[in-house]
C-alpha cells in the first residue's frame, strides 16, 4: 500500500485489522457516512438534503435567508437535491467563494473554509479575482496529474472501498 491509498476506509475482517478502528483514529476520524453517500450517488454541483440537514437546522454561521429556503427543499425528503451554487449553477467560477463570505456555503465542510481560520484570507482573495482562482486551480490540477497514479497491473481500483479486492 502507498500513502493516501484510502486504507483508513477498510473495514476490519477476521484476518485484518484496519486503521479505521485503530486507537489513534477512534473519535478523531469521522464522516464515513458522507463517504458512503458520495460513493453511492454522483450529483455534480448538487447535494442531497441529508448531507446539509444539520447545517440548515443547527448552525449559526449561516445566512438567514439560506436556511429557510433549503429547509423547504428538505421538507420533500432526504434524497431531494439542492444546488451547491444558487447563482451560477452550471458555470465553473469563483462565486463559490463569494457564497462562503456571505455564509451561503451549503455544506458544513465548505463553510469551514471561511470560518475565522487559516483559509479565510485565500477565500477573500478569490472573491474579486476570478482569474487568480482559475490560475491556482489549473496549477493544482497539473500537480494532481503529476502524482503518478498506478495503472494497469501496477495498481487497482477497489470494487468496494471498505474491502481489499478479492476479499
TrEMBL record:
It catalyses: 2 a phenolic donor + H2O2 = 2 a phenolic radical donor + 2 H2O. InterPro entries: Haem_peroxidase (IPR002016), Haem_peroxidase_sf (IPR010255), Peroxidase_pln (IPR000823). Its EC number is 1.11.1.7. Binds 2 calcium ions per subunit. It is an enzyme of class 1 (oxidoreductase). Coiled coil: none annotated. It comes from the Eukaryota. Heme b binds at residue 42. Pfam families: peroxidase. GO terms for biological process: response to oxidative stress. SUPFAM superfamilies: Heme-dependent peroxidases. Residues 28-165 form the Plant heme peroxidase family profile domain. One of its GO terms (molecular function) is lactoperoxidase activity. Keywords: Calcium, Heme, Iron, Metal-binding, Oxidoreductase, Peroxidase. Ca(2+) binds at residues 43, 85, 88, 93. Its cofactor is Ca(2+); heme b. PANTHER family: PEROXIDASE, PEROXIDASE 72-RELATED. Belongs to the peroxidase family. This is peroxidase.
